[in-house]
Design a protein that fits this description.
Number of strands: 11
Distance between the termini: 36 Å
Order of helices and strands: HEEEEEEHEEEEEH
Number of helices: 3
Radius of gyration: 19 Å
Largest sheet: 8 strands, antiparallel, barrel
Strand order of the largest sheet: 1-4-5-7-8-9-10-11
Helix content: 10-25%
Shape: elongated
Length: 199
């Protein structure tokens, strides 16, 4: 029994020792989307205020867990009137549901740099499973600001969701498409253990 307890403790200790946290570089990342207006033209938008992190026990990030949050009030489509409408009860109802979030449940390699990322997306008070196609570049070691060597990794994620699944807007789909394309780009930096613990 003692041997079993010791083995479990050693395994947990080993997992903790190799646990890594990767923080998003917001100046080189974007949480965006594209919708179709009047069945004619694409409208691009993004959330200016967001945060994300990756946790992993493996150096190659093959077991990575992704977490992302975005401030709905920071939605930006380069048109103040439209942004105000998107924040209203007609769509996101940002006053009542000020944030959206995503937490992964699975990250599986397809081939090469291509992965499938599955997780739970919460918007407008509704949580639904989504699947994203991901391209991962890295991890790679490179010199950052001040010449200090850092490990970095880049991700491009894309997928399609239906706004109706989340109860966002009753506007007819001939005006605003039901299908919304998600486009998320992220650059992440591995955190020192001491920094990661503070976070």
């Amino acid at each position: 029994m003692k041997t079993l307890v010791f083995s479990i403790a050693a395994l947990l200790s080993l997992s903790t020792a190799y646990a890594q946290t990767w923080a998003v570089d917001k100046s080189h990342s974007r949480v965006g989307f594209t919708l179709t207006h009047n069945l004619l033209s694409d409208v691009d938008g993004n959330f200016k205020s967001f945060d994300a992190k990756i946790s992993s026990a493996k150096a190659d990030l093959s077991d990575a867990t992704f977490e992302l949050t975005a401030d709905v009030n920071s939605i930006n489509t380069d048109n103040e009137r439209r942004d105000g409408h998107l924040k209203s009860p007609d769509f996101f109802d940002a006053a009542k549901f000020p944030a959206l979030s995503f937490k992964s449940t699975s990250f599986k390699k397809v081939e090469g740099k291509q992965y499938k990322l599955m997780g739970d997306l919460t918007m407008h008070g509704v949580t639904k499973p989504v699947t994203l196609n991901v391209t991962m570049v890295g991890p790679v070691a490179m010199k950052g600001m001040g010449g200090k060597e850092q490990e970095k990794a880049g991700f491009k994620a894309s997928g399609t969701i239906k706004r109706s699944d989340f109860g966002i807007g009753t506007i007819p789909i001939v005006v605003v498409s039901d299908e919304i394309e998600l486009k998320v780009n992220g650059e992440f930096t591995k955190q020192d253990a001491a920094i990661a613990e503070k976070k």
